[in-house]
């Protein structure tokens, strides 16, 4: 059963070519399930927006990083995955940030943990030195299926 998700505050759609340029800069290929959602909804946040981590703690998805340039000419997705940011958070190159939650933590793809060719989804706590990393699920589709409204019990 597919979960109904609405994306709020999305930006103008970007082309597949723009996304391929970002992938080339990062030296990765983003998962197809993510690409399909991201091209139409970059910069947006999902509703419902909450999910449960493996320890049972509720978390907020936050919003997808944006691919268009901001007023300073910077691209949020590129900046978040820059060598500077990776050093700042002691993050390995195999980790690619795709979402930032309201507390400033990251949802990331971990290309060091592949499942049938797909990178795992991890939570990166930015307040812990070196990042406290917790695996959330195996694919972006699984993450979307985990989303629920605030206060809904884990299913």
TrEMBL record:
InterPro entries: Knr4/Smi1-like_dom, Knr4/Smi1-like_sf. Residues 13-146 form the Knr4/Smi1-like domain. This is SMI1/KNR4 family protein.
């Amino acid at each position: 059963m597919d979960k109904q998700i609405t994306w709020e505050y999305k930006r103008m759609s970007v082309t597949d070519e723009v996304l391929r340029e970002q992938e080339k800069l990062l030296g990765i290929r983003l998962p197809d399930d993510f690409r399909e959602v991201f091209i139409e909804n970059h910069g947006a946040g999902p509703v419902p927006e909450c999910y449960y981590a493996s320890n049972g703690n509720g978390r907020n998805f936050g919003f997808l990083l944006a691919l268009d340039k901001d007023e300073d000419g910077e691209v949020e997705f590129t900046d978040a995955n820059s060598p500077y940011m990776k050093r700042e958070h002691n993050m390995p190159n195999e980790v690619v940030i795709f979402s930032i939650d309201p507390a400033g933590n990251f949802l990331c793809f971990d290309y060091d943990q592949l499942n049938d060719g797909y990178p795992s989804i991890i939570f990166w706590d930015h307040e812990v030195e070196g990042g406290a990393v917790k695996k959330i699920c195996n694919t972006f589709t699984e993450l979307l299926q985990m989303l629920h409204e605030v206060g809904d019990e884990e299913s």
